[in-house]
Amino acid sequence: MPLDTYQRPLRDLRISVTDRCNFRCTYCMPLDEYDWLGKQEILTFEEIVRLATIFVQLGVEKIRLTGGEPLVRKELEKLVSQLSPLPGLKELCLTTNGSLLAEKASALSAAGLRRVSVSLDTLNPEKFRAMTQRGNLDKVLEGLFAAKHYKLQPIKINAVIERGVNDDDILDLVDFSRKNGFGIRFIEYMDVGNSNGWLSEKVVSKAEILSRITSHYGLRETGRQSGSAPSVDYQIIDGAGDIGVIASVTEPFCSSCTRARLTADGKFVTCLFSAGGHGLSDEQVRDVISAVWRAKTDR
Ligand code: SAM
Ligand code: SF4
């Protein structure tokens, strides 16, 4: 297994199956149109499975399918059914905005998907519409409950908190998650370099998120699920409630990072791995991945 320059193994792989999305969350994809990848530039399912197989052989234990919005990629369940049986893969999960989950949950579950994370930043329908620019809250809630019905569990809700926008929704989101048996992860608002109008004043820090919750509930810190998990987790002291905070801005966790990303057009990020290794044998691809990971210096 390759270790990077800080002796970190490569354990988690995020695979973007598309760069497109049916939402336009103001903090992520604020503009109407982008310079989308052409169909022939996107990795085919065969290419993704080939690369994923090699990554798993190199020690990757967890694959998360993401995007853009992964469920806008046609027949994603076919990819799931090819990835889920990979020997050595311990976890296959999906991060989605939930809008198409009600129609897809049954097929995804049958294909071997085990878990989903659903992004949901507010339970107020008008605010939800304003934040996503295109989304319908009812569809997302329907998707969440379909995921529960098909046991795509544990289900986690991801909520990005932006000051002046949805910082007053934190307790509602905690109560909703507790009541329905969902975990919730609050994410500090990040500057993702896409003209999302990021200002440091809009970041609601982990400390502030926690203090809003502890004004109502006692919390006990349970730490990071694994040494390298991005979220610091908490349990509500007097009952159910699985809460976490991803403090990418105020407490960056890069030093323990074991994650890499495969972009929709086959680039291996944290570094460059362009065009999905066209014309290379599996062994050569394995060498490229190992070399890139070994040279990783990001702290
Ligand atoms: N479309 C899917 C979704 O929304 O879950 C998957 C892709 S989305 C880019 C993955 C996660 O990144 C979501 O939970 C989203 O809320 C988060 N995200 C996007 N922009 C962000 C930002 N500026 N700061 C913090 N988190 C962000
Ligand atoms: Fe789409 Fe997810 Fe970005 Fe929202 S956060 S615009 S749903 S990719």
Descriptive labels:
binds iron/sulfur cluster, binds S-adenosylmethionine, alpha/beta, 11 strands, eleven-stranded mixed sheet, 299 residues
Compact overview of the structure:
The protein has 299 residues and is an alpha/beta fold.
Q: How many runs of DSSP E, i.e. beta strands?
A: 11
Helix-strand string: EHEHEHEHHEHEHEEEEEH
Specify the helix fraction band.
Answer: 25-40%
The Rg value, from CA coordinates, equals: 19 Å
Between the first and last Cα atoms, what is the distance in angstroms? Answer: 20 Å
**Which spans have pLDDT < 50 for at least 5 consecutive residues?**
271-279
Give the overall form. Answer: globular
Bound molecules: S-adenosylmethionine, iron/sulfur cluster
How much β-strand is present in the residues? 15-25%
Helix tally equals 8
Derived structural class: alpha/beta
What is the quaternary state of this protein? Answer: single chain
**What is the typical, i.e. mean, pLDDT?**
88
Q: Biggest sheet: strands side by side, in what order?
A: 7-8-9-6-5-4-3-2-1-10-11
